[in-house]
Write a structure and sequence with these properties.
Elements (H helix, E strand, L loop, with lengths): L1 H15 L28 E3 L8 E4 L1 E3 L3 H13 L5 E4 L8 H14 L3 H6 L6 H9 L3 E4 L12 H19 L5 E3 L9 H8 L2 E3 L4 E2 L9 H18 L1 E6 L12 H13 L4 E3 L2 H13 L1 E6 L4 E7 L11 E6 L7 E5 L2 E2 L2 E4 L2 E6 L6 E5 L1
Parallel strand pairs: 2-9, 2-10, 3-4, 4-5, 6-7, 8-9
Antiparallel strand pairs: 1-13, 11-12, 12-18, 13-17, 14-15, 14-18, 16-17
Helix pairs in contact: 6-7, 8-9
The structure holds zinc ion.
Zinc ion binds next to loops.
């Protein structure tokens, strides 16, 4: 009920689309545990640290809303069924594709070098970014104008952070979950402001990509990039990346190299959860506070109750419940209130994706 009220409040705030930041001053409030909710020591059920009970999480973040991102990165990620986070400078984005084309025409006419003029491409517009968001990619706040925040006053820093969030909401209907500091700077009071208004932020640039190191051949670069993800999958945890241009613009990775790396990253998908940063942040926060109670409901059946631990409808996302069956089941099912829940057999484990709710779920296997 609290969650429903909060959802209504969040929707009402979203409808305002005003200059007020959506999450300003938001404080998490822990929910009391339901009577009797506790995990029995012998219960073979647990919550997966990362979705799908994978060992680690990784988020591809692409900075600055470049033409390469819509032309190359989006189709590449989608070919591998991956989704990314795109950090947008909200004050620099043309409203429509037609406006972007007109801006590119003007820039071509102003350019004296014919080769450079021919290479000028229209910037992605809000039309492009809304479509990307509709396909599950994350649009992140990368400030309004990409200034050097370190040299600004706290008021100017707050205006860049809050204005970026308001811009995403107004132009794309998206609430900013992730803030990426321009030039990886946060400025005076910036980190505190971001922490109060966003769920996720990137510090220090994360995993960098960029052009191959001097003297290094491209296959060696790709092997180095992919080795970092293999190491992440082996050690556990969550890392964010920083990618700018692929072929044209700041610090390009090179197209063939990046294509090969994304294919190799996708192949790690059973151990590495590759998802937008805001989505991982929501899961991370929700799963660390959620409560799971389990009781036997037959020889090969469990009754499970998965409850949210934080009072915020934003964090009501599917969490992976893992049941260790001790056998290799031939079939399994999970139901709640007459509805079937996604339930996958992985060796001796069952992986059930369920959103926290008051109602118990019944899991059975054979
Ligand atoms: Zn940037």
């Amino acid at each position: 009920m609290i969650a429903a009220r909060l959802a209504a409040a969040v929707l009402a705030m979203a409808a305002l689309a005003a200059a007020e930041p959506v999450w300003a001053g938001r404080q998490y409030q822990a929910l009391p545990a339901a009577a009797g909710a506790s995990v029995a020591a012998s219960a073979p059920a647990r919550l997966a640290r990362w979705q799908g009970d994978r060992a680690a999480a990784f988020s591809f973040i692409f900075d600055d809303g470049l033409a390469d991102h819509t032309a190359i990165v989006l189709p590449l990620l989608e070919a591998h069924r991956l989704r990314g986070t795109f950090a947008l400078v909200t004050g620099r984005i043309p409203a429509t594709a037609a406006e972007a084309a007109a801006q590119a025409d003007k820039a071509r006419q102003a350019e004296k070098d014919p080769a450079k003029a021919a290479a000028i491409r229209p910037r992605p517009s809000w039309e492009d970014w809304r479509a990307a968001a509709g396909r599950g990619h994350e649009l992140a706040n990368h400030s309004v104008s990409h200034p050097g925040l370190a040299k600004m006053t706290p008021e100017q820093v707050a205006a860049e952070i809050d204005g970026g969030a308001a811009g995403l909401l107004a132009a794309a209907g998206v609430r900013a979950l992730t803030f990426v500091g321009p030039g990886n700077q946060y400025g005076p009071g910036g980190l505190e402001r971001v922490r109060a208004t966003h769920l996720c932020w990137r510090i220090g640039g994360g995993l960098g990509y960029g052009r191959p190191q001097a003297g290094e051949d491209p296959p060696a670069t790709v092997a180095r990039w992919t080795a970092r993800l293999e190491s992440l999958a082996a050690k556990g945890g969550w890392q964010l990346s920083m990618v700018h241009a692929i072929i044209d613009g700041y610090d390009p990775t090179g197209e063939e190299a990046f294509r090969l790396h994304v294919a190799q990253a996708a192949a790690l998908g059973d151990r590495l959860w590759i998802a937008p940063a805001g989505e991982v942040a929501r899961y991370d926060l929700a799963v660390r506070h959620a409560r799971l109670a389990a009781e036997p409901a037959g020889e090969r059946a469990l009754r499970l109750r998965l409850e949210a631990g934080l009072d915020d409808a934003l964090l009501l996302v599917p969490l992976t419940v893992v049941v260790e069956t001790g056998i290799a089941p031939a079939a399994a099912s999970a139901r709640r209130g007459g509805a079937e829940l996604p339930c996958r057999i992985a060796g001796t484990r069952l992986l059930i994706d369920a959103t926290p709710a008051a109602e118990a779920m019944e899991v059975a296997w054979r």
